Structure formats: structure tokens, C-alpha cells
Amino acid sequence: MARPLHSPLITLGARLFFVTLLVACLLAGLTGGLVRAGVPLPAGMAGAWLGPAVQAHAFLMICVFLGTVIGIERAVAARVRWAFAAPLAAALAGLATLAGRPPLAAQLGVLAALAFVAVNVLLVRRQSAPHTRLLLLGALAWLVGNLGYAASGSPHATVPWWFAFLVLTIAAERLEMTRLMRRRPGAASALGVALAALLAGCALFAVSPVWGGTLYGAALVALALWLIAFDIARRTLAAAGLSRYMAVCLLLGYFWLALAGVAWCATAWGLPLMDAAIHALALGFVFSMLLAHAPVILPALTRIKVAFGWPWYGPLALLHGSLALRLLLRHTDLDFALAAGAAGNALAILLFAATLAGSALVWRRTHPPRTTPS
Amino acid sequence: MNTELPYPYAGPEALRAPIEAALQTVVDPEVALSIVDVGLVYGVEVSDERLHVLVTMTSAACPVTELILEDIEQALDGVAPRGMAIAVELVWTPPWSTDRMSARAKDFMGW
Predict the structure, then answer these.
(1) Which regions of chain A does DSSP assign to beta strands (E)?
(2) Phi and psi at residue B10, to the nearest 5°
(3) Nearest chain B CA: its distance from A253 CA (Å)
(4) Number of folded domains in chain B?
């Protein structure tokens, strides 16, 4: 039974618990990524958590951080309390990772994905539409990835499934928006073919990295072209304020998605572009979507409203600038490109968090609490 | 009925325009259009003590739903006579379709 409107789904304590764990896991995940990119850490930052954070960087960023955020997002949409079991298990998987218990973390990951599949089944039963079914497919991809991770203990074969979870989730959310555009004949089947190729690429990757990676990369390029052609972003770019900012984030994201697809294909054929394949997708595409939607989603999740303003473009510019430095210049003579780019990426995410906090303060200052008439 | 509204309205004439204007201020920033233009308002009924609005969303998986419902309540609070209860009800039938979009919305989206 769905909760009545305006009755808080989870207590303030539970919200604080999620925020604390999310911040801790994000910081640990980012630090792990920086170490992998060769960024020297300040003395005193090392600890027992650092090894697991470096080792499980992908798990922390995708399954723990994004898994928890997406899990909370879907639980708020479902308006049932048990739906928070998914983000709770994902967040606890982060704790288990940092405590040096990878098998327990992987099992909690499976639990999180199972609960998340159940939430999406509920939403499909509530509204059976192409985008809700696609969200369910994304949840199933996450489950397959997490089962593989629990069985093998290695993210190698599961990373394509984890990204498929994110890509399908984003594609579903954008598909819902494209309903506002006039639907061209063949658009739905073109998307179906691209996403089927993506899943086939995931499955094939385990047995044939060359053909699996090629199919996966081609599917990403096809999806990017589809989104550029049919998403509302090209329309809302003409709007003002927050709508335009979101459109800029989306279109930049689609550019990196296409580039990621090319890099996946090239990597499959032996070119040393793995970092580009992974991070054009994770930072260029997925984090751009996060930057786009945070001003809208954050108030929905935390009940904290934020004021939009030009400073929002700062983290966006830094993210894309540092990603370009990292991916496009690292194959030149500029040895520092990878480390400097990765540091810029992490800084962009922290600057974004600071922008969120600052915008929440601006909102409070400009919207003093109203005395509600009885 | 002297004004063409994209949703059925039952209530005092004096409140018709202010209520529509209030609903027009509730904008979904993702699409840069008001909920009236997207066609999310299914009906408005005003009795002596109650302002009842039926709305839908384009997706059941949308986490922003509650926020939009709150925005609607707040916008209506500014135009409803003192003491009138405001009830915003979320419904899923009939399902939303593009037929409900206003001419302005379709023009903006390049129809």
C-alpha cells in the first residue's frame, strides 16, 4: 500500500544515516580513483580503508554510491517504506567494502539489487509502460552484475553489466521525456535494437571480449545518436535558467556517451583506451546526468530546496574540461594529463557538492519560513 | 463557459482565472513547461469549503511527484479564499497522453 502524500517515508535520522554513508563512500571511492590515476595523496590520509577503496573503486562508485542514490530515488517514487531496503543494502555494502570485507559487500550488493528488482516490479504493476519496463530491465542488469561479482570477486566481467544498469536507467528516464516529442516512425524500434545490442554485448563480453566489447561500444554510440535525435534536450536548450542548464548537461553527456562507445570498440580491438571507455561513460555521461538532475531530484529526496544560479555551470565546466584533459591529452607527451585530469574530475564532484550546499543556503535566505495560517 | 480551459472546471466563475493562473506557475523544470501546458491537470472542482484538483504525472517512477504536488498546493494557497481546504489528488486513470498537451507545449516541442 502506498503511503499517503506528504507523510514522510523515512525519519530524519534515517535520512542523516543515508547522507553520512553516501558522503563517506563517495569520498572513499573518489580517493580510490585518485590513487589509481597516480595522484599523490597528502600524508596522513592513508588508513586501513584505503586499500579496499582503491581495489573496489568501481564497486564503490557504481554499486554503492550510484546504487544508493538511484535506490533512494526509486523508493521515493514508489512511496513504500520497504523499497528503502535496496539503498540500505547498497550503502551497507559500502561500509563492508571499507571494512575490508569484500565477500560480505558483494552479498549485500546482490541483496540490494534483488530488493531493487522488487521495487521496479511494483512500479511496472502500477504503470506498465515502455519506460517502467526499461527501468526494470536496468535493475535486472544490476542484479546480473552483482551476482557475477559475488561469484567471481572480480569486477572485470561485471563492469559492462554495472554500466548497463546505469545506461538503461538513464535511457528509461529519457524515454519518458521523449514522449513529449512527436514520435518518429521507427524511433521506438531503433531504441529497442540499441538496448538489445547493449545487453547482448554484456553477455558476449564474458566469452569474447573482442566481439562483446565491439557490440557494447556500437550500442553506446547508437544510443547516443538516438538521444541526440529524440530527446527533449535540444528543445529545452532554448529555454532559460534551470531548464537550459539541464539541457546543456544532457547534450554534453550524449557527446561523451558516443565517445565512450568508440573507445569501448577501440579497446576491444587492443587499443589502450580502457580509461577513456570507462570514464567517458562514468564521468562524461553518467555524472553529467547526475549534475543535470540533482537540482530537481535533491529537493525531492531530502526535502531541502536549492536555488538555481550561474554558479551551477562551474562544476559542469570543470568536470568536462578535466575529463577532456584526462582522456584526450593523456596519449600525448603530457605525462601529467591523467593525474591532473583525475584530480580535476574529483574536484568537480566536490565543487558540485559545495554548490548544492551553497544553493540550499541561498534558498533558505531568500525563502524565509512562512507562518502558515491555521 | 466563457473561457476554454484544458480541463473541466466546476465552481464559481470568479475563481476560474486565478486558479488557472496559479496552476500555470507550477512548472516542471525538466521540460520547461507548466503542468497545465503538459496536460497534467485533469479537473478542478470548487465547493464552498473545498478546492479539489485532480492531477496526473507522466510517469509512476517519477521521484519529483510529491514536490510538484506540494508546489500545486502552495500555488493554490495563494488564490483560494481564506479557510478553504485545498485537496490535490493524484490519479493514474486515464493515463496521460500527448493528446493532452496544449498547442503552446506542442509548438515548443517541435510538433
Answers:
(1) none
(2) -130, 120
(3) 16
(4) 1
Q: What's the sign of the alpha-carbon dihedral A84, A87, A91, A94?
A: positive
User: From the CA atom positions of chain A, what is the Rg in Å?
Assistant: 20
pLDDT tens digits, B3-37: 567 899 999 999 999 999 999 999 988 888 999 99
Query: Which of A126, A179, A300 has the CB atom closest to B66's CB atom?
Result: A300
What's residue A89's pLDDT?
Answer: 98
**Has residue B40 been placed in a domain?**
yes
Residues from chain A contacting residue B59 (CB–CB below 8 Å): 127, 129, 131-132, 176
From the list A132, A177, A239, the residue facing B60 with the nearest CB is A132
Best A180, A234, A306, A312 member to test B by mutation, with max B CBs in 10 Å, is A180
Residues of B in contact with A293 (CB under 8 A): 30
B17 falls within a domain: yes
Total residues belonging to chain B: 111
Interface residues from chain A to B (CB-CB < 8 Å): 5-6, 73-74, 76-77, 79, 123, 126-127, 129, 131-132, 135, 172-173, 176-177, 179-182, 232, 235-236, 239-243, 246, 293, 295-297, 299-301, 373
Residue-wise pLDDT for A124-152, tens only, equals 998 888 999 999 999 999 999 999 999 99
DSSP SS3 for A304: coil
Which pLDDT score is estimated for A68? 96
Would you say residue B110 lies in a domain? no
Query: In whole angstroms, what is the distance from residue A281 CA to residue A253 CA?
Result: 8
* B108 within domain boundaries: no
* A134 alpha carbon, distance to own chain's centre: 16
Pick from A6, A179, A300: which is nearest to B63 by CB? Answer: A300
Q: Which residues of chain A have pLDDT under 50?
A: 1-4, 372-374
B33 vs chain A: nearest CA distance in angstroms?
9
Please report the pLDDT score of residue A371 as a whole number: 54
pLDDT digits over A292-317, tens only? 999 888 888 888 889 999 999 999 99
DSSP, res B99: G
Helix-, strand-, coil-residue percentages of chain A, each rounded to 5: 80, 0, 20
Task: Provide Rg for chain B, Cα atoms.
Answer: 14
CATH code of residue B67: 3.30.300.130
DSSP annotation string for A132-164: HHHHHHHHHHHHHHHHHHHHHS-STTTHHHHHH
Give me the pLDDT at residue A6, please. 53
Q: Which domain holds residue B29?
A: 9-102
In the prediction, which pLDDT does A3 show? Answer: 46
CB A148 within 8 A of CB A158: yes
In the three-class reduction of DSSP (H, G, I as helix; E, B as strand; rest coil), residue A374 is classed as: coil
Mark yes or no for CB contact A243/B70 under 8 Å. Answer: no
